[in-house]
Amino acid sequence: MAAIVSAAAFGIFYTVLTGLLLLWGIRLYPDAPSFGVGSSFLMIAVGQAAGAPLVGVISDVWSPVTAFVVAAGAAALGALLRPRLH
What we know:
Layout: H1 2-28, H2 33-61, H3 64-79
Helix pairs in contact: 1-2, 2-3
């Protein structure tokens, strides 16, 4: 049951935060909203492409718990970043 709740929570928060990034992208580039959306999607894809293998390596070298802590730390640091709005 915990795995189902965890997966559902991840899906909900991933969808909400992705939408928030897209809205920030539009607001950051009001004269070119498609650029804001496109750059947001690009950064999400780059983060997934780089983050997944990195977390896998950390999990193999140290432990899954360490990988989780590192990923959570990266997410916390990312939460501190905010775009400058015009």
